[in-house]
Structure formats: C-alpha cells, structure tokens
Write a structure and sequence with these properties.
Layout lengths: L2 H4 L12 H12 L9 E5 L5 H8 L3 E5 L3 H9 L3 E3 L10 E7 L10 H10 L1 E12 L7 H4 L11 H10 L3 E6 L10 H25 L9 E7 L2
Length: about 230
C-alpha cells in the first residue's frame, strides 16, 4: 500500500482544509508569528496540502518540499511551487518555514543537517515551526509508534540541542494550539474542562519530577527563530 493511500489522502482532496484545520493553522501560525501580508512561506513535507491550500487562500505565497513523487505531482497539478530538497531553495527566501509531523521521519544522525538546510532558506529573524510526536509524554507514544516510518523520537531537551547546533534559537516548546471559536457551545465547554484538567496534570507531574511544568499533549510544537 502506498503511504498516501494509508493516510487517506485523495487526489481530489489535495489542498482542501477543514474548518478545524483552518482554525488550528490560524492559531498556531498566522495569529502568532506576526507575518507580513503576502508572506513567503515554505512547508516541508506538505502531505495532502492542507496547510498550503489555507495559506494560499489567505493571500500568502507558499512553496512545498516533498520527497513523495505522487504528492509532488498532486501539488504541481494544483498550481503550487514544489521542490524535492532544501538544496534547491535560495538562501533567505522565506519569512517562515513550517513542518508538521515531519521531524520524526528524519534519521537521528541527519537531524542537525536537516534543520541547518532549512534554516538557510529562512530570512534573518524568520521562524521555523515544527510539530512532532511528544517524546516527553507517554501520550505521544500512540503517534510515535503508530507509523513504521517514524525513526526519530524528539522531546524538549533534544529539540533544544539540535536547534542550537543548527544555529537557531528556541522561542517556545509547547503543546499544540487547540482553538475553540469554531466549536459549538457544548464542545467549547468540554474543551475548557479538558484544558483545566490537562493543565493541572502537567503542573503536578512536571513539578514533581522536573521542577517545572511539562507539556504532555500527544504532539509537541517547537517554534525556532533564525538570528
């Protein structure tokens, strides 16, 4: 079975974005980073094009990197600029780079080189946003080990090390955003309760074992910046 078929990514659905995905991208990227209008963005490992499609609908210019030839073909058919490697990109070409669920596919020995290559394509002061299974949390195991192509486990300490080695600073390491505005009243109330309970667990367990709060969501988001 092809990877894109296993993920349920259809040709017709390429570049489409659900209401929930759009709300997440806005909360995680577009409402947080202070990007300029019509920013130049790069997505590494664009998958089914959900983020690229949303970014383009917001008026941004977005380029994608993908090693999967079928996904490259779909993106090109949808009118996106696509390449197969960071080596094909001009230095300092982008305001920000995003990579959702990518770093866990990069071999451990290649992680620093991977981030260094991405960093070359970002403007000075630009951001790199990475989401990956949370290696610090027991709840990240289902995502980490549910895909046999995952070869790298990343937590807050490791991401700090590899970021520094790639010449990047760490702005934040956190749980993914969980916007509520698009939800109905009952689900919004449920999300508020969930957040209170999860926050209490993170504080209690984090302070007990590490002396500080520990993000424990199944995924982790690292926001890095190029000096």
């Amino acid at each position: 079975m092809r990877y894109e078929d296993w993920k349920g990514w259809s040709t017709d659905g390429f570049g489409g974005t659900s209401t929930a995905d759009a709300a997440y991208f806005d909360a995680e990227i577009f409402n947080r980073l202070g990007l300029p209008p019509a920013a130049r963005l790069l997505e590494v490992g664009f998958g089914n094009g959900n983020f690229m499609g949303h970014a383009r609908r917001l008026g941004h210019s977005v380029t994608g990197i993908e090693t999967n030839a079928e996904l490259q073909r779909r993106a090109q058919a949808a009118g996106f600029d696509v390449c197969g490697s960071p080596a094909e990109l001009a230095n300092g070409a982008f305001d920000a780079v995003v990579a959702f669920d990518v770093l866990e596919h990069v071999p451990v020995a290649d992680t620093v080189d991977f981030l260094t290559a991405i960093a070359r394509s970002v403007k000075s002061g630009g951001y790199i946003v990475l989401r990956f299974p949370n290696g610090d949390s027991p709840f990240g195991r289902a995502y980490q080990y549910g895909d046999s192509t995952h070869v790298n486990v990343i937590g807050s300490i490791k991401i700090g090390f590899v970021a520094s080695a790639a010449g990047l600073s760490v702005v934040s390491v956190k749980n993914p955003e969980r916007p509520r505005a698009h939800l109905g009243a009952r689900r919004q109330a449920g999300e508020i309760v969930r957040k209170i309970v999860a926050s209490g667990m993170e504080r209690a367990l984090g302070w007990t074992f590490f002396g500080s709060r520990l993000p424990m969501a199944p995924n982790m988001v690292a926001v890095l910046r190029k000096p």
